Amino acid sequence: MRRTWAVFGASSIMLAAALAGCSSGSETPSITVFAAASLKPAFTEIAEQFKTDHPGMDVDFNFAGSSDLATQLTQGAGADVFASANTAQMNKVAQAGLLDGPAVPFATNTLVIVTRPGNPDAVHSFADLTRPGLIVVVCQPPVPCGAATRKVADSLGVTLEPLSEESDVTDVLNKVITGQADAGVVYRTDAINAGDKVTTVEFPQAAEAVNTYPIALLSGAPQAGPARAFIELVTGEAGQKVLDAAGFGKP
């Protein structure tokens, strides 16, 4: 009997040592956050604060157009947190039964026009985007920035004929920065982040198409506890300070 227990005890010690060895070589635990492309600079900064507050926990981001993210989630992609650039895409995820609790509004964003540096084509209004020969890019209609752009165009009774409709706002901005387009419609935050790589043109009708950003915990989140802490950071004083500095408005 003593020998049996001795063998069992030795085996247990060996198993514990093996598990410890596996644990020490495993990847750092992380939360997965699906977030609108326009949130990348701000959320990347907020993630650094999160990792400081939660040593040993990392943040993996999937930044893309909110409509693409919503589609990925409803088709089975796994994540802990979803932050959308408008309520419509969050509602799609909610209607699929994928939220663990209500979504919380945490920011707003407003459209602006960006042009090549110095605004050489003299774009001064949204209607100027319809000028013949002007190369314009916008977001696809399902994407929040595209839906807002369409709303402005409809309110003015104008029809845009863009060179392309991009899947997220970052691609619109990059096409203007790289000279592939003369002008594009993006968020204020994207224009601020681009700095002197573009010239920003504001237009009054943007006030009629302000997007509200909601954030939510996803049902079945593998890291629900840390994910809740990330959401609290985003919606709390520290996160709001970062978002304000990036050009986002209050929800």
TrEMBL record:
InterPro entries reported for this sequence: ModA, ModA/WtpA
Keyword Chloroplast attached: no
Alphabetical UniProt keywords: Metal-binding, Signal
Transmembrane segments: none
CDD domains for the chain: PBP2_ModA_like_1
Pfam families hit by this protein: SBP_bac_11
Cleaved signal peptide residues: 1-20
NCBIfam families: modA
Family: Belongs to the bacterial solute-binding protein ModA family.
Protein name: Molybdate ABC transporter substrate-binding protein
Organism encoding this protein: [Mycobacterium] crassicus
